[in-house]
Design goal:
The protein is mainly α and 511 residues long. The protein is built from 19 helices and no strands. Helix 5 packs parallel to helix 7, helix 6 runs antiparallel to helix 7 and helix 10 packs antiparallel against helix 12. The protein is extended. The N terminus is likely disordered.
């Protein structure tokens, strides 16, 4: 009695578990489940039912696989959509290059059929010289050595303590002011200097002005550090090159050991505007590299001259009459006609100057820092373009102008505006003085970059910003060119009957 009562609940629990297990096995068999239902107690009928269910499941799986193979749609974006991860546009780029070549070939052939061959290499000499026995621009460049020697003499006296810092600063102010004013007065007062010769000499003096300003600042920093430590420097204060086998073998110069004639003229000739006591140097001169760059310089110079004579000059001559009559439709047509060759010449000039010429000079001097430009062609903002297309000028502005203004408490916007103002001044200086007229087109064009930079950075991004940068380069430069050429023609050439007749002939040919 006691045993039966004790084991009764356990037996009932086992019966409930058995019933529950049987129900679950039945459900599994109905759903085509596995071999758990294939128990010997189920009998042959259950095994046959299970095999049928497995066969049905296998058939359904094969049907699904065949359906997946026949399916031709899936979740994906179009290749040209911005949400697509597709990035290979090489074929489109090649197509653009082919179309560009074909369109320019048509324009060039049309130009040849209309005007004939206008390229005259001998005529280029007249752009630099009016009198074969008079070389005023070259003489003006030679005179610049006086200002170089004055700067070196001043630094030596400051290093010895013969001059105070205030006296040295006054000498530098006088020297740098004369560097800008002296060539300007000579170009304006001496009729024998051609506009091209004047632009070349003024460019040399402008580069010299920036170099000597950097020379003054770096040597002053060296003296300040010397006084602060009250001992001689054991290493250079400049930014040395990254440590390597070649750099460790070179002897580093310390202040005032850098105040030598050799060091001064190396800096003057080096393709940089920022002075350092120890420049990074390459191990040797690669003659093959030198000859390749020299070949590019000669070839591209002839190409620039030929394109200017054959393509630019006729379009500019034909633009005089629409500009005088203020015919806006024809002015717009002439502007667009001038935009393509002008931009092509600008691109060739960029490669000629910043790659071929500067690498040529750097290789001869074993100058190691060859970063003369960055990927400005990928610029998505106007500011990025101006920071990367001319690295020597950008480094100078950042080191000697922008950062000193920030250290003195000026805001970023004010400092950037001051940099653009200085750049606008030098652009106008290099254009208006050789042409012997002041029109401020270059100055206003540079200052217009400030609102344009704000607009592009605020409203345009990515490819749209890059397109805006390219559009400003392609359209903005021809506008300034037409303005200056028109004003120069009205000021100097309007009364010349030969030039007026030539312009009229070209204008009839275009119309």
């Amino acid at each position: 009695m006691t045993d039966k009562d004790d084991f009764g609940p356990i037996t009932r629990n086992r019966r409930r578990a058995t019933i529950t297990s049987a129900k679950s096995e039945t459900v599994k068999l109905r759903n085509g489940a596995t071999a758990a239902a294939c128990d010997l107690r189920s009998g042959p009928k259950a095994r046959e039912s299970l095999s049928k269910n497995l066969q049905i499941n296998e058939d359904n799986k094969q049907k699904c696989d065949r359906y997946d193979k026949m399916s031709c749609h899936k979740l994906q974006e179009s290749m040209l959509s911005s949400a697509s991860s597709f990035k290979n546009y090489r074929g489109i780029l090649n197509w653009c290059v082919v179309m560009l070549v074909l369109s320019n070939a048509r324009l060039f052939l049309e130009n040849l059929l209309r005007y004939g061959i206008l390229v005259d290499p001998i005529q280029v000499v007249s752009l630099f010289l009016k009198d074969p026995y008079s070389w005023p621009a070259a003489c003006l460049v030679i005179v610049s050595n006086v200002f170089i020697l004055v700067a070196l003499y001043t630094e030596r006296k400051l290093a010895m303590g013969s001059f105070s810092e205030k006296v040295g600063l006054l000498i530098y102010i006088f020297n740098l002011t004369i560097i800008l004013c002296f060539p300007m007065v000579v170009v304006l007062k001496l009729p024998s200097i051609t506009p091209v010769g004047g632009a070349f000499s003024l460019g040399v003096y402008t580069i010299l002005f920036l170099k000597l300003y950097s020379y003054k600042d770096v040597n002053r920093w060296c003296r300040e550090r010397t006084r602060a430590k009250a001992r001689s420097l054991s290493r250079s204060l400049s930014c040395p090159s990254s440590p390597s086998a070649s750099s460790t073998m070179q002897s580093h110069v310390s202040y005032p050991g850098n105040l030598s004639l050799r060091d001064m003229y190396y800096f003057v000739c080096a393709p940089t505007l920022c002075y350092e006591l120890n420049f990074p140097r390459s191990e040797s001169i690669r003659m093959g590299f030198v000859f390749r760059r020299l070949f590019e310089m000669l070839l591209l110079t002839q190409l620039l001259v030929g394109l200017t004579q054959q393509w630019i000059v006729p379009v500019i001559r034909s633009s005089m009459k629409p500009l005088q009559e203020m015919d806006y439709s024809r002015m717009t047509e002439r502007l667009l006609r001038l935009a393509v060759p002008n931009h092509l010449i600008w691109l060739i000039f960029f490669y000629w100057f910043f790659h071929s010429s500067m690498n040529f000079v750097a290789e001869l001097l074993r100058f190691g820092d060859r970063e003369f430009y960055r990927d400005w062609w990928n610029s998505e903002t106007i500011t990025y373009f101006w920071q990367n297309w001319n690295i020597p000028v950008h480094k100078w502005c950042l080191r000697h102008f922008y950062k000193p203004l920030l250290r003195r408490g000026a805001g970023k916007l004010l400092s950037q505006s001051a940099v653009f103002f200085a750049s606008a001044f030098f652009h106008e200086y290099l254009v208006s003085v050789p042409l012997r007229m002041v029109r401020l087109w270059a100055f206003m064009g540079m200052m217009a970059q400030l609102p344009l930079a704000w607009f592009v950075a605020r409203f345009l991004r990515g490819n749209y910003g890059n397109a805006a940068v390219w559009l400003s380069l392609i359209i903005g430069q021809p506008i300034a060119v037409l303005m200056y050429v028109h004003d120069y023609y009205v000021t100097h050439c309007q009364d010349d009957p030969a030039i007026a007749e030539a312009n009229l002939t070209v204008d009839r040919g275009l119309d």
